[in-house]
Design a protein that fits this description.
The chain is α+β, with helices and mostly antiparallel strands and 182 residues long. It is 21% helix and 34% strand. Bound molecules: nickel (II) ion.
Length: 182
């Protein structure tokens, strides 16, 4: 068990499509150890989610810690289906893209089909902030970073360093956007 080094933007492992895991692989002690390392690394950096490529392992598993009552959700080999294409915007951050925040528009409701740690098929429907959390995390398994989803263009300021974000851009209560610091 160990806290792992987090891959930062520019490392090729973050741009690979993660390999799907077989049921036999999921049941190995090596895989359990990987998930444990992901958990320890996520907690060390106060993330609310982490994907295996972020600790230099290009396999299709992410963990998301969204519920204070329950243990982390382990998501293996996910497939995402958009249930509501209406978009919502949140300011996102990422352990692999330190010091930056970007405003990202994503569908507001998605369904995720995946395997859990026992290799059982599961399905979850998430909306609102959680839909953004899951989509951000699962993007990592397809080689996508939140900076790819920022809408760039003149006259906008969709991406910022944390200091400037906090000084000039942090959402005010009346704004219809929130924050995700993954
Ligand atoms: Ni991330």
């Amino acid at each position: 068990m160990a806290i792992r080094k987090v891959a930062r933007m520019g490392h090729p492992v973050l741009r690979q499509k993660a390999r799907e895991l077989s049921v036999d692989e999921i049941r190995t002690s090596e895989f359990r150890a990987l998930v444990q390392d992901m958990l320890e690394t996520m907690n060390e950096y106060s993330g609310i989610g982490i994907a295996a490529p972020q600790i230099h392992e290009a396999v299709s598993v992410a963990i998301i810690d969204y519920d204070e009552e329950n243990p982390c959700t382990v998501i293996i080999n996910p497939k995402i289906t958009v249930l509501d294409e209406t978009t919502q915007a949140f300011w996102e951050g990422c352990l692999s893209v330190p010091d930056l925040r970007g405003l990202v528009h994503r569908p507001r409701k998605v369904q995720i089909d995946y395997l859990n740690l026992k290799a059982e098929p599961k399905q979850i429907v998430v909306e609102g902030f959680l839909a953004t959390v899951f989509q951000h995390e699962l993007d990592h398994l397809f080689g996508v970073l939140f900076v790819d989803r920022v809408q760039y263009g003149p006259g906008t300021s969709p991406i910022a360093f944390i200091e400037e974000y906090q000084r000039y851009l942090i959402p005010k209560e009346e704004d219809d956007v929130g924050e995700l610091d993954e």
